[in-house]
Amino acid sequence: MFDNQLIEKFKTLETPFYYYDLALLHRTLAKVKELAEKYRFHVHYALKANSNDKILKIISSYGLGADCVSGNEVLKALATGFQADHVVFAGVGKSDKEILTALEKDIFCFNCESLQEIQVINELAEKSNKIASIAIRINPNVEANTHQYITTGKEENKFGVNMAELNEILEVLKNSTFIKLVGIHFHIGSQIQDLENFKNLCFRVNEIQEWFTAQNIRLTEINVGGGLGINYHQPDLENIADFDSYFSIFNQYLKVKPSQRIHFELGRSIVAQCGSLISKVLYVKKGTNKQFAILDAGMNVLIRPALYQAYHKIENITSTSSERATYDVVGPICESADFFGKEVSLPITQRGDLIAIRSAGAYGEVMMSDYNLKEQAKSVLLAM
What we know:
Elements: H1 4-11, E1 17-21, H2 22-39, E2 42-46, H3 53-60, E3 65-68, H4 71-79, E4 87-89, H5 96-104, E5 109-112, H6 115-128, E6 132-137, H7 166-174, E7 179-185, H8 196-214, E8 221-223, H9 243-253, E9 261-266, H10 268-271, E10 275-286, E11 291-295, H11 304-308, E12 314-316, E13 324-330, E14 339-347, E15 354-357, E16 378-382
Parallel strand pairs: 1-16, 2-3, 2-9, 3-4, 4-5, 5-6, 6-7, 7-8, 8-9, 11-13
Antiparallel strand pairs: 1-10, 10-11, 10-15, 12-15, 13-14
C-alpha cells in the first residue's frame, strides 16, 4: 500500500497522523453506489465511524444518506452535503435538545429504541408543530458472532425494543398524533464476517413484517442496519469489503412488499481500509523476556486495541533490515492497556522508524481524546 514516494512524504510530516487513501475511498464508494442502484437499496453512511469533514464531503457527493447518533452528527451531516430527507437519527439516549434539533432540520426519520422515547418525541414534535416520522428499532434476537461489546441485536442488549413490547407501543402510537410510524429498524452488531448472520436476519425480518401485516400496519421503510466486517488481518488482499455478497443476501432472502424501501447503515466497511495511523518509534526497550517498540501514538489516538482487544495489522514501513524480531508495540500513555499489538513480528526496528497501523479509518480518529494531555493526531488526505 505504501510506495517509496508516499513513505518519503510521510518522513516530512509530524507524527502521529492519520493517513487516508482517497483513491481507495472513491473506489469503495463507487462500488457501494453501483450495487445500491442495481438493487434499488438506500445506503446511509454511519457518521460514528469517521466524521472527518473532508471524508464526509466525499461520501455525501456519492448521494449516500447519513446515519447519525447525536444531534451534533445531524448538524455535521447537513453541513457536509448530506440531504435532510436522507438523514436518519438513531441512538438509545437522544436528549430533548438533540430531538428538537432533528425536528427543526426536518430529517427523514428517527429510529426509536424505547416506548419512553416515542412519547418524548411526540411531546416535542407537538411543541414544534411538526410530524415526526419514526421507525421502531426491534431486537431480532439474531446472533452476530462478534465481540460482546459490539453485539447489539440480542434481547439483553440496551438497544431497541423486544417483540413483547410492541403491542403496548402500538397502543401508545394510536394516541401520538404528532408521530407517523413509517418503518422498522434492525442492527445486530458490528464487524460481522459470517454472512450467514445476515441471512438469518432476513428470515427474522420477514417474520416480523408478517406480524405487522397481521396488525393491518403498512410499513414503507425497512432499515436492516449495517455491521459488515472487513479483513483486518490482510487489508491489501481485501481492501474493499465484500459488498457483492452482502447486498446479494438481502436481495435474495428479504421479502420486500410493494412500495417498500430497504435501507442500510454502513460505516466501517466504507472507511476503515482507506485509513492508517502513522506513528514514529521513540524507543526500543529491552525487557527480561521481550522487547517493546514504544511509539509516539497511544490509546488516546487509537483506542480500539485497548477497548475491544481489536487486531490491527502493524507494519514497519521504513526499516531496511532483512532480519526480523518480535516486539510488543506500545504507546506512551500511563496505562498498561496502552498497546497496539503483542508479540508482533517486524523487521529489526529502531528509534525513528515509521510504523503503520492499518485499517484505522473507522473508529480511530473519531474516538481520539486528549488523555494525558497528549496532542491529538492530525489527518493527511492524499489521492495517491
